[in-house]
Write a structure and sequence with these properties.
Chain lengths: 117, 113
């Protein structure tokens, strides 16, 4: 079974609108972290936001927020007030076994977001 | 400006060449990684170095040879590559343990001809 599933290969959103990018995960480890990265066409993988499995509140970073639903094993990224510069590939990733020093980041296949005028 | 820098950003090499990719991190981290990103595939972890020791090698062919001389530098030595090795190679770093984000460099675009 895939550990990280992103079911939306491509998404369109109008400028200034909000958009939700879906991510579901699969793990039996009670301790894990979920990450979202943005990858523009230049190639750099830019860290956006992080959610720990024990965090009680949803993570927020500026216009980014993470809708964490632990029972459903989902960690959707919400981008508010979309901007043209948000057009990029977005990856959801998971790091497991953090209490034991887990150092492997498993990625989903990504969602290509295009922001339109 | 990224805390993880990779050189060269673009590399074209023949199948008989020997070249190296270099990565340097300025974040005080003690773990470094090489990832491979091919078209239409998820990122694949290739190598992990923790405290300058290789701790993971995900069945990577021997034509890829990593080197970690210290906690700030990581190399990927390339020799007798195949065209299917053409990809974006991403270096990353983090702290070894705990809730620490893994930070990536800008990547090295490799084309094997």
């Amino acid at each position: 079974a895939q550990k990280i599933t992103q079911t939306q290969p491509g998404m369109f959103v109008q400028e200034k609108e909000a958009v939700t990018l879906d991510c579901t995960y699969d793990t039996s480890d009670p301790s894990y972290g979920l990450f979202w990265y943005k990858q523009p066409s230049s190639g750099e993988m830019i860290f956006l936001i992080y959610q720990g499995s024990y965090d009680q509140q949803n993570a927020t970073e500026g216009r980014y927020s993470l809708n964490f639903q632990k029972a459903r094993k989902s960690a959707n990224l919400v981008i508010s007030a979309s901007q043209l510069g948000d057009s990029a590939m977005y990856f959801c990733a998971m790091r497991e076994g953090l209490t034991g020093g887990g150092n492997k980041l498993t990625f989903g296949t990504g969602t290509q977001l295009k922001v339109e005028l | 400006e990224t805390g993880v820098t990779q050189t060269p950003r673009h590399l074209v090499m023949g199948m008989t060449n020997k070249k190296s990719l270099k990565c340097e991190q300025h974040l005080g981290h003690n773990a470094m990684y090489w990832y491979k990103q091919s078209a239409k595939k998820p990122l694949e972890l290739m190598f992990v170095y923790s405290l300058e020791e290789r701790v993971e090698n995900n069945s990577v062919p021997s034509r890829f040879s990593p080197e970690c001389p210290n906690s700030s530098h990581l190399f990927l030595h390339l020799h007798t590559l195949q065209p299917e090795d053409s990809a974006l190679y991403l270096c990353a770093s983090s702290q070894v343990k705990g809730w620490h984000t893994i930070y990536f460099g800008e990547g090295s675009w490799l084309t094997v001809v």
